[in-house]
Design goal:
Radius of gyration: 22 Å
Strand content: 15-25%
Bound molecules: flavin-adenine dinucleotide
CATH superfamily of the largest domain: FAD/NAD(P)-binding domain
CATH topology of the largest domain: FAD/NAD(P)-binding domain
CATH class of the largest domain: Alpha Beta
């Protein structure tokens, strides 16, 4: 083995790892990112297929929030075009939502009972302005105290599962209101004209500009510790095992895999117990369709009351570059009945395709299925249900986690991931100086 040295070793080139590496290399830390796959970006990347730039995960990065701010801070290009606000399909009718007063407009489309409307609005307003509900109550249980109206409940189910990726019966009510407060319900997002991989590529350019390196096809096989302090990792590259020594190690591969890389015998029992009992990955289904004419008038439609589909995106309305000329890309998102394992993929996909036939006139004649993805296991929608996340620091000194298994309360997906990177980079800057 040939030992090498850097200030910060980042395991994994997801957006969490790359944001952290870009922030630290800009601050003068010699940074190495080791990625096991041949491409960077993890679940924010692009699969080229039949001339389409299909998403390997994230399709709609948030605009105007922490992610974009991180790009601006490190001087990386944030090539995202706004998708505009979502439209809603409620009881077969399209409902457009104004920037303010959205909830009232949505519920008015679902009920003519004024007293019920006021009851639900009053409860929401209390949870937003005074105290969030308990984290032991699911959003659905919380809502049932105020309404039994299935149309209103299905609006919440669609909104919540399309944005937080959990069903309303699974998401802690508290997390939903924190999400509304912190991320304003994830309202402003866009599509990447060069595919989602443009974002990791822009960060990689910053890291390399500041002297850092990114290795692909380079899995970490062990995190090296000594007296409960992280010393580096063993990276496999071109058949050789290379020992990399570092002052800090940032793992982007999810808290469960981080522990495997360290070896359970080195980890505090309480931490292991928390990891094993509290942390479940979020599952998601995404179906990417090529169509020879636009099957949707909208860029982003939240679908209420369907069997499984909760959102339809037509990114080519905004970014025609991601499809071959004359073709369109349509992406359907769905939450399975339970977003915790096991997944009955065949039954769930069957329900999704029944929905697509109902929702998209012309589906049979004009659509071709490009990719059908069930996202779970080590490639989930998120490594932890909102509210169940592990901490950024691990029991091993100078070993941090970044990514969507260590989100802070109320934070979801890419903005959450960017925040973890920012917090870890700040902690390292406070505690460890770069080598001269
Ligand atoms: C279908 C789908 C749609 C989504 N849509 C959206 C969306 O529209 N908007 C949004 O904000 N978010 C969305 N998300 C969520 C978002 O993609 C993720 O939250 C985010 O990309 C996760 O980033 P991360 O840094 O946590 O980890 P990842 O992207 O998982 O990156 C981790 C990296 O670590 C690498 N790795 C693992 N083990 C090792 C090892 N031993 N050695 C080296 N490398 C290793 C992996 O290969 C991977 O590249 C979606 C997710 C999915 C699955």
């Amino acid at each position: 083995m040939t030992p090498k040295r850097c200030d910060v070793l980042v395991i994994g080139s997801g957006m969490g790892g790359l944001c952290a590496a870009a922030l630290l290399s800009q601050a003068g830390y010699h940074t190495l990112v080791a990625e096991r796959l041949p491409r960077i970006g993890g679940r924010c990347s692009t699969i080229e297929y039949k001339g389409f730039k299909c998403a390997a995960g994230a399709i709609g990065p948030e605009m105007g929030g922490l992610l974009e701010e991180t790009f601006r801070q490190v001087g990386a290009e944030f090539d995202v075009r706004p998708a505009g606000p979502p439209s809603y399909l409620i009881n077969g009718k399209i409902c457009e939502v104004p920037p303010k007063g959205g909830f009232r407009k949505l519920f008015a489309a679902a009920t003519s009972d004024e007293a019920e409307l006021e009851r639900v609005m009053g409860a929401i307003s209390g949870a937003l302005s005074w105290m969030e509900p308990s984290r032991t109550t699911s959003l659905r249980e919380w809502l049932l105290q105020y309404t039994q109206n299935e149309s209103i409940l299905s609006i919440f189910q669609a909104m919540v599962s399309a944005t937080t990726m959990l069903n309303a019966s699974e998401l802690p009510a508290r997390e939903y209101f924190l999400f509304l407060k912190k991320l304003r319900g994830y309202r402003g997002f866009g599509f990447c004209p060069q595919g989602s991989i443009a974002l990791p590529r822009a960060l990689a350019a910053v890291i390399e500009k500041h002297g850092g390196a990114i290795w692909t096809r380079a899995p970490a096989v062990q995190i090296i510790t000594n007296n409960r302090i992280a010393r580096g990792a063993v990276i496999k590259k071109e058949g050789e095992e290379i020992e990399i020594h570092a002052s800090a190690v940032i793992s982007n591969c999810g808290p469960g895999r981080t522990v495997q890389l360290v070896g359970k015998q080195h980890i505090d029992q309480g931490y292991l117990k928390e990891l094993n009992t509290d942390v479940r990955a979020v599952m998601l289904i995404a179906i990417q369709l090529a169509t020879d004419k636009p099957l949707l008038d909208h860029n982003y439609l939240i679908v209420t009351g369907a069997r499984r589909i909760n959102a339809l995106f037509q990114p080519t309305n905004v970014c025609p570059e991601i499809a071959p000329p004359g073709k369109h890309l349509l992406v359907a998102g769905a939450a399975p009945a339970s977003t915790a394992p096991p997944l009955n993929a065949r039954a769930e996909l069957d329900l999704c395709f029944q929905d697509l036939r109902d929702l998209l006139p012309g589906f049979e004649e004009h659509a071709e299925v490009l990719l059908t993805g069930t996202f779970h296991g080590q490639w989930p929608a998120m490594h932890a249900w909102p509210g169940d996340d592990m901490s950024l620091k691990t029991p091993i000194v100078n070993l941090y986690n970044v990514g969507d298994g260590v989100k802070s309360p109320g934070m979801i997906a890419l903005p959450a991931v960017a925040e973890t990177a920012r917090l870890v980079a700040e902690d390292i800057k406070m505690r460890l100086a770069p080598a001269a």
